[in-house]
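Handout, page 2. Input:
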Amino acid sequence: MNSIIETSLFFVDVILPIPLRQAFTYAINKDEAAYLKRGMRVSVPFGKSKIYTALVDRVHQQIPDSYEPKEIDQILDEAPLVTAKQWNHWEWMASYYLCTFGEVIRAALPSAFLLESETIIHLSASFDATSIDALPITDEGFLVLEALQHQSSLHINDVRSILDRKRVLSVLQELLQQGYIEVKETLYDAYTPKQKRYIRMASAYASEEKLRALLDSLSRAPKQRSVIMTLFTLRTADKNVGSVQLQKKSNASAAILRTLIDKGVLEEYFLKHDRVSYDGDDPGHLKQLSPAQEQAYSEIVQSFEQKPICLLHGVTSSGKTEIYVKLIEEVLKTGKQVLYMLPEIALTTQLIGRLQAYFGSKVAVYHSKYSVNERVEVWKHVLENSKKAQVVIGARSSLFLPFSSLGLILVDEEHEPSFKQYNPAPRYHGRDAAMLLAHIHGANTLLGSATPSLESFYNAQQEKYGLVSLTERYGKILLPEMELVDLQDAYRKKKMTGHFSERLLVAMRETLAAGDQIILFQNRRGYSPVVSCTTCGTSPQCPNCDVSLTYHQHKNQLRCHYCGYHIAMLHSCMACGMETLDTKGFGTEQIETELQTLFPKHRVARMDQDTTRGKNAYRKLIDQLEEGEIDILVGTQMVAKGLDFRNVRLVGVMQADNLLNFPDFRAHERSFQLLLQVAGRAGRTQKRGKVLIQTYNPHHQILQQVTVNDYQGMYSEETEERYQYKYPPFFRTVKITVKARNFVTMQQAGHWLAQALSLQLKEHVLGPEQPPVGRIRNEYLTCLLIKIPKQQSLPKTKAFILQVYRRFSALKEFSSVKVVIDVDPA
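Output:
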């Protein structure tokens, strides 16, 4: 640093949150050079008029050759927001998943940390325009608020014009923190600390004499007197008394409180308050592990002494969570942090309460259903290694948090495809990125699943990972009785009512009569996947995608599940004009409708993407089922993922065949995992559960293996096929998707890439081939698959792929073509 400060010119390289494969250099002064550190944020001008928030990479004295650097706009942090270990992890992600560092930053940082000149600001809903003159703000802040009273919103560039200065982010940040303005983003608001309102006596009434005189003067205002007396009572137990608490305890209105404040008797003040906080009882003691759990726990601890990664293969309801809790407790004793990753937000919802019962306020939650304000608070707690974030529960995005002393990463349901990020870049796999994060921190990783992915189980068999098996359910409860129902035979014998076989209906009636609950699984949402005309056979199609529209009865809409396009349900065919439209196939919505007719006296609910859009939608459904307010829950694969319901005795799979007949080399593995996982929701207490799987093909090998819980048989068959056809875990794969609005351009681009890649990779390049859905959002698609043998250098192969991609991007005729590179596609 001394050698830099001795020179007269100083520069900083920054990474912008945009998909460009380079850092950008800006000029800084001597003081800024001494102050800036890697991981701090600075706002910088980019292009003609844009302002971006960028991350500092390095400070140096090398003058750029090709351009004259601009000056930075301002420094936004007093200390680095991103740690050195985070930086290393993000660099690895950009390199491994063939994306830019800027794309990783965009995915990793909450949007409140990345203010841009396109950001729109407006007055907050609670802003009182009448008191603007009395606000404790700067002259610049006053000008901004005054302008917003005449205009509904302003761009940040408009603010620069109003204030006649370039550096305006500090002014806006101050107004944001005080809650006077809000930031309008496409998805979220920018971060403003939550302020909680408290009440105290004014200093003028501190002496006993003045206080007694005040109470005497209020003898004819009993409600005001009651407020003051209640305030004294509450302050004996708690120094800070909330305004809402005071109103409730004194049975007073907000107007009475306001009157006392206006008189100068009471004062209001505000304190920062976490949006997500634990207000429950003191944490309880851990449950006693069963002998089988205790043995598994000991084997995991021994395995960690040899290898940093261990796979726990435990059958459904074997009590894996209790083992995780014991491991967490031991790690917390060493003063280190724990990351508990889950594939679905629904799972975090159920687990939060269980972990808080053991660890109280040490538990923090981080996932996309939380507001950006809540995520910023968790980020800051983790960065400061606060006691409020010693255990972080979250979905895949939680591995971006700024951990300083990570001791253990738990990846539960590690086989789940939900751990894979598809769009936008980085297209990372949460499980794999978590293992690298643990390596950087010198931490251990435990992968848990009743149906491990073939890759993980293969690595365990090859002794790259430790392997621990837990083969009995907690309390020695029997695995559910499983039965296949032949739909073809049931239809032939006319033993079907709607989409329910007689066998399933009988089992449902018996279960409901016993006061138990039912889960029904159908892996399609909506009412009907296809609507077609019985006269001419035409189906309404999405104008933007090559798929038919799905009928949603609840909204009386035809909807595309790829682009969101929707129209009102048609009364007549668009092709022939006949009123002969009929629905084919069925989704969760149709099952729900049929159930309400078949079981009118019982409560039916649905869990799918349409019913869980709200922040608390998962929790409401799960709480209702746990409290016995729902008798039958019908859902998509959301109901299959590790949820623990004590009173579910019957699980019905409405139709298993659409899982098996999917054009993907993982289809059979996924079918086995999904069916066994959904079956595991049944009979999790002493009463044995039952699982009925309706299928047109009861003799299918996978279904036979599911009924006897034969994971080893499925693994042996699938790995043999993968070996023969050169798929993971024996070959690495990279999928390249080419998109263009012009079909011919798309085809030409696909063939150009295939030929260029084949020059070096030879027969290991497959395609181009159109996917099952060949057009999405008015873009035609074609795909290439590159297979990389284990003995072939992965870094060199990726470098060659990037080299071809750069050459392709430089071609003028393909300037309108988009190329998506997906490493290790799920």
